[in-house]
């Protein structure tokens, strides 16, 4: 029996503990496990960079060493450098191989915790405060996902725009020098074509608009989450209920929160559909 299975049976299968408390414990442990998995993946990327850099260094030093021996001009320092980068390459490969089982185990445990979390959530009655609390907490995952997508889209947009700006400058400069350096004519043509393709992709896929919409949706959901948690704004008073601190009032606030979040998700889907449409189709429907 693995440690994950033992934790599942002991901590999350104790029927004497309320389901919502076990669900919160599973969600907390899942968050910690996901953080560990994210850190392990980041370390693996660094190891890949290390390995790639070492391989490139081996190729360069090996090539220069072959030329040196061919020209009867050996260099001891170059040989030692080649040996060092070969050792570095072997070390990077060894670390990657040894760390792979750890990453697989973390991924498996995270999936197991996610399964436990979903299983516990399915046991909570739908028409209950616990179910609405679970919905409120799970909306934070939605916020994180929207922000992650927004960051990715902004990064893609900025990369394309940076290439368009730099490529336009370089292409214009090379075009101006074609008369003096005829050999660079094809380079200028290729760069100009790539700039045009990048500009077309940016305008067609609308990465900036997608990122802005996703970031706005994430901010709106987080604002509602904080408002219902601190009972401010529209969540301060629930109409028709005398006891504003009771369970019925809390259920009213959480229901309103769920309605607002679903409305924001629907608006986000509509904005995505509008971005998918061409300007001609949009004008035809309007």
Task: Characterize the structure shown.
83% of the residues lie in helices and 0% in strands. Helix 2 (19-70) packs parallel to helix 4 and helix 4 (129-176) packs parallel to helix 7. The longest helix has 52 residues, at 19-70. By secondary structure, it is mostly helical. It contains eight helices and no strands. The protein is flat, with a radius of gyration of 29 Å. The chain folds into two domains: 1-124; 126-277.
Descriptive terms for the model:
286 residues, 8 helices, disordered N terminus, 83% helix, 2 domains, mainly alpha, disordered C terminus, flat
Give the CA-CA distance, first to last residue.
Answer: 62 Å
The Cα radius of gyration reads 29 Å
Question: What is the global morphology?
Answer: flat
Order of helices and strands: HHHHHHHH
> Approximately what portion of the residues adopt beta-strand conformation?
under 5%
Oligomerization status of the protein chains = single chain
The total count of strands amounts to 0
Total number of distinct structural domains: 2
Provide the residue-averaged pLDDT: 81
Please tally the helical runs, counting DSSP H or I stretches of 4 or more residues.
8
Summing up helix and strand content along with how strands pair, one would put the structural category as mainly alpha
């Amino acid at each position: 029996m693995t440690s994950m299975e033992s934790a599942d049976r002991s901590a999350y299968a104790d029927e004497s503990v309320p389901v919502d408390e076990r669900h919160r414990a599973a969600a907390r442990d899942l968050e910690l496990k996901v953080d560990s998995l994210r850190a392990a993946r980041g370390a693996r990327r660094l190891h890949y960079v290390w390995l790639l850099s070492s391989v490139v260094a081996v190729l360069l030093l090996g090539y220069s060493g072959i030329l040196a021996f061919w020209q009867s001009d050996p260099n001891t320092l170059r040989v030692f450098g080649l040996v060092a980068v070969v050792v570095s390459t072997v070390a990077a490969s060894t670390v990657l191989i040894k760390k792979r089982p750890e990453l697989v185990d973390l991924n498996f445990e995270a999936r197991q915790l996610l399964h436990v979390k979903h299983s516990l959530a399915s046991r909570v009655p739908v028409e209950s405060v616990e179910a609405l609390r679970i919905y409120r907490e799970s909306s934070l995952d939605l916020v994180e996902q929207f922000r992650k997508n927004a960051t990715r889209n902004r990064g893609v947009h900025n990369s394309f725009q940076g290439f368009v700006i730099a490529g336009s400058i370089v292409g214009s400069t090379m075009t101006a020098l074609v008369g003096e350096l005829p050999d660079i004519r094809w380079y200028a043509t290729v760069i100009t074509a790539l700039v045009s393709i990048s500009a077309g992709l940016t305008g067609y896929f609308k990465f900036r608009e997608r990122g802005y919409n996703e970031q706005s949706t994430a901010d709106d959901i987080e604002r509602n989450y904080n408002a219902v948690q601190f009972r401010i704004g529209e969540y301060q008073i629930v109409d028709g209920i005398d006891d504003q601190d009771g369970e019925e009032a809390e259920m009213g606030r959480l229901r309103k929160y769920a309605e607002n979040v679903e409305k924001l998700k629907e608006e986000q889907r509509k904005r995505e559909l509008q971005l998918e449409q061409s300007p001609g189709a949009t004008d035809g429907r309007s």
